[in-house]
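Quick start: read one record
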Amino acid sequence: MTQIHPEFTPVINADVLALRPDYCAVSVIADGITNAVAHPAVCRYVEQAVKLPVRVPWFEAHLEAWRSTYRSFGAKPQRTLNSAEALLQRLGSDGRLPGINAVVDLYNAISVSHVIPVGGEDIAAYVGVPRLRRADGSEHFDTMKDGELVTEPVPAGEVVWADDRGVTCRRWNWRQGVRTRITTETRLAWFVLERLEPMPVAAAVEAAIVLKDVLQQVSPTAQVSVRLVDRTGTAAIA
């Protein structure tokens, strides 16, 4: 199976696997997408995700695994929730998910419906490849606060996603940076779905296949590849 952009392969550092040897991710690359503010296929999926309650038996245990993981590198999960739990909390409080654009809305809905943190990035904004690693204390992070672009220091030991230019996502999957986020101009995108025990690997793969299928409804000519990434390396799925 041909891998789309094989040079763009996420790397998981050993210092992260030392924290969670059970961690694995599903990496999805979509080339040639046409994003928009909204799309009917995404609207249908979001509506379904919002209405259907989570039924999987490992639902709460997976969220607790992420809370425990946050504590292991010094984060406070009661203040900084992993992205899936933050979306579920928002959905529980006001009955809806934030509307950003079609592609972002889609992966947020998949995060809720499959109880898994999902991130999406614009590959064109990357320098090098994404690497999941622990910060050394010298990094800074660009984010939005009260509508203004601000730069925050990243403490040593925090687990971050980063490229050769800097941190792209803080506290594993808590907050994405501004530089690499997906916009309506994005044509080449990377998505990462992140799983810990006790979520079955098959359930993470299923979520990625749903993402692939709906992306291809949004952009029928797009090429989408799916790969599993874990401590042993990467393997093609679809």
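Helices lie at 14-19, 40-51, 59-72, 83-94, 102-114, 201-218.
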